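Hi there. Long-time user, first ticket. I'm pasting a complex I've been working with (about 369 residues overall). I'd like to know whether the download I got is complete or cut off, because the file seemed smaller than I expected. Thanks.
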Amino acid sequence: MHIPDGILPAQVCVGGYAIAGGVTWYALRQIHKTSDPQAEIPKAALLAATFFVGSSINIPLPPASVHLILNGLLGALLGWYAWPAILIGLFLQAVLIGHGGLTTLGVNAAMIGIPALMAHQLFQLRHQLGQAFRPSWSLGIFSFLSGAMGLGLTVLIFFGLIIFTLPSTLDQTTEQTALMALLVAHIPLIFVEGIFTVLLTLFLLRVKPELLES
Amino acid sequence: MIGLHRFAKVSLRGGLLALIGGVVTPAIALAHGVEIKSRSLSAVQIQATYDSGEPMAGAQVQVYAPEDPETSLFTGTADEAGRYLFVPDRPGDWEVSVRQAGHGDIAVIPVSEAGTLAAGFTNTTGLTALQRGIMAGAVAWGCVGTALYFRRGKH
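Hi, the file is complete. Here it is re-exported in full:
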């Protein structure tokens, strides 16, 4: 789901960096406002490592292989810290394993990071909307929604970006067909990520519930 | 009466066409003579795969000649194994773009004056097993270290 170098026009790459720069500034400002900004750093580091490893595991689903993203999970558990964690994870992936690229780092960060921040807002809604359920049910439902929504939104942004920037030299129909096949291949993964987020948050609720409150 | 008049016009036109055909046909038939020449050329075969090792079957391939990186000289589709074959007709750096479903890469293939290029040329510098091992170890150590940090509790 990472966009490599050479796929997007230069204007889009520059726009991606501009958006990522703005969000980085805002996220760091929000983090700085917390009472102890350093307290969450180990958790963010652990989940940044999980993001890095998770994104390196290929799951073969034709026509291409897909890999875990886990941005919904990071967003749910880290809040604003999810942004720097994803940014650092993406930079290391581009440099070390060639997933994505340096020209598209801003676009990839916006594509993966902004849905993560939105997933956090959705996860927080359990305090208001989840009152009707038992705490574990409420946590499970909103974890699933956050995990699934994070990846689902990323997939939609990816397809929007690719479809609207298809060069005229390419056979549009062939590329659109391949993109649709890839979109369909990601639907099971959206459920997998939702379920994975549920399992992890329920585990944390049992062993270290304070980690769920960021 | 009108029908007879039309029949006469049609048969006249048909006769005229037949006459022209009869005169012209031998000349056209002579122009259909075929000559086939042959010469041997060095072809370049590329093979595109995803980093998981799966071939990019059916991917769109565009080949750019050295002096014109804007307009593709050849376009086509990779086969089931992700392979595509083309014949560079001049020396220089040929660019080959492979793309499928928002994934893709560009390879620069240097072709010498003699039309040859390095055998098994590849533009990717894949990680060695040692590099991958060190990286996985570093990440695992990061996870273990962070987990230990949480286990120690507050002091």
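A couple of notes from our side: Chain A has one domain: 10-212. Chain A has eight helices and two strands.
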